[in-house]
Every structure is written in C-alpha cells, then in structure tokens.
Amino acid sequence: MLDQLNLSKVLFLDIETVPQTYNYNDLDDSTKYLWEKKNAYHLKDGGSPEDIYERAGILAEFGKIVCISVGFATTEGGFQLIRTKSYFGEDEKILLQEFCELLNNHYTYPDQLLCAHNGKEFDFPYICRRLLINGMKIPRILNMAGKKPWEIKHIDTMELWKFGDYKNYTSLELLTHVFDIPTPKDDIDGSQVAAVFYEAKDVERIAKYCEKDVVATIQLLLRYLGDPLVIEENITHA
C-alpha cells in the first residue's frame, strides 16, 4: 500500500477523550455497578473502583470525545506542507457533527484514506461507538460493516510498525524518538487531559496538544516512506 500512497488523499487524525464525569462518585448507581462489573478483573486484587476510574476515558461506554484533530499533507510550489484543524468543545455531539460533515462532504471517494497511530484499535472504533451512542450515522469512510479487509480505507502507523507482531505496542512518543522526529516536549501529556478539561476548563489547550500528535503521525509516515520531514515553517494550525 505504501509504495502507491498519495499523501494528499489521506486524512490524519487523533482524538482526546475524558471520563463522562470527573469523579467516580458523580456517576449514578447503575453506571457505578456496570463500571465495577466491566473492571472486575482489575478489582480482584483489592483495588477500588475509584482507584481505576481515571482510565474510564479510554472506554467509549464510560468516556467521551472532547477533541478530534485532523491533518492534511499537501505539496505547493515544490514544498511539502502540513495543515491541521481541530473540532473540540464541551458538547461532544456538536464536535462529532462537525467532524462528520468534513468526512461526508470531502472524504467520499474510494482512493481516500484515514490514518492514525493505533487508530484501528482506538481512534476509529471509539469515534464510531460515540457516534452511535449519540444517535448519529457513521460516515462511509469510517464504517467497516460488511466490508472486505481490502475495502477498509484505514492506515495505522502503529500496525505498520508491528510487521505482523501483534504482541507489540509501540507508542507514538517512542517512535518519534527512534526516528529522530522533533516534537515539542512542553505542556501536557495524555494523563493530564481530564484535569485540563474538568479543572482548568481549557479545551483549546487540549486541541493544541492533540494537533501535535497529528503532525507527529504525518511525520512518522513520511519516515516510513523514506521521505524528508516537513519543516516547522511549513506547518500551519487553523
């Protein structure tokens, strides 16, 4: 696939998620019961439901999306460019609607693809699940139902790095390090997103962090292709 890849046909994305409520005790009784049931394995050694609630954001049934950042790689005047844009806010349904409008209006052709790091196990299914929970239709490019494997237009930079080794998980942070991809080391990391959202109420800060991961994913795929990285001056954030 990579030797025939046209980067201008690829939409890169990353999502940031948080628990449905900041504190476990704010959940209703039914949700608390189901949270404990879902996490029975993690609780068998004596931990409490509150202790592991911080991981609720990674489960679509107990979390929600607060930001979807996308990136486009284009060539203009002989220079490779990256453009990013984010859909974010406190109302998950609104940001999902805006993201779906992008897909439904501009990513409907068979030669277009989506790309994310660990996207096949996290970003893509999480978005689809939250769309259904919000009573929304899944855009064609995201929907895998009834499709043959070669008809699914998804690229996963982590899956590409596995080379068939399905035991292996390699973070985007580690790969940017080993491939010498410059990334900002400032501001927040993923473990702080919920606090920034619920305490600081600064979702724009989360969006900036999310866009950095999108840029890193694009640069990583360029490394896979053996192409030069895009220089900082040619990266624009909307």
List the helices and strands and how they pair.
Layout: E1 10-19, H1 29-38, H2 40-43, E2 63-76, E3 79-88, H3 92-106, E4 113-116, H4 119-133, E5 154-156, H5 157-162, H6 172-178, H7 193-200, H8 203-225, E6 235-237
Parallel strand pairs: 1-4, 3-6, 4-5
Antiparallel strand pairs: 1-2, 2-3
Q: Would you give an account of this structure?
A:
The chain is α/β, with parallel strands linked by helices and 238 residues long. The chain has one domain: 2-Layer Sandwich (Nucleotidyltransferase, domain 5). Helices cover 37% and strands 18% of the residues. It is built from 8 helices and 6 strands, in the order E-H-H-E-E-H-E-H-E-H-H-H-H-E. The chain has helices at 29-38, 40-43, 92-106, 119-133, 157-162, 172-178, 193-200, 203-225; strands spanning 10-19, 63-76, 79-88, 113-116, 154-156, 235-237. The protein has a 6-stranded mixed sheet. Helix 4 (119-133) links the parallel strand 4 and strand 5 (154-156). The radius of gyration is 18 Å and the shape is globular.
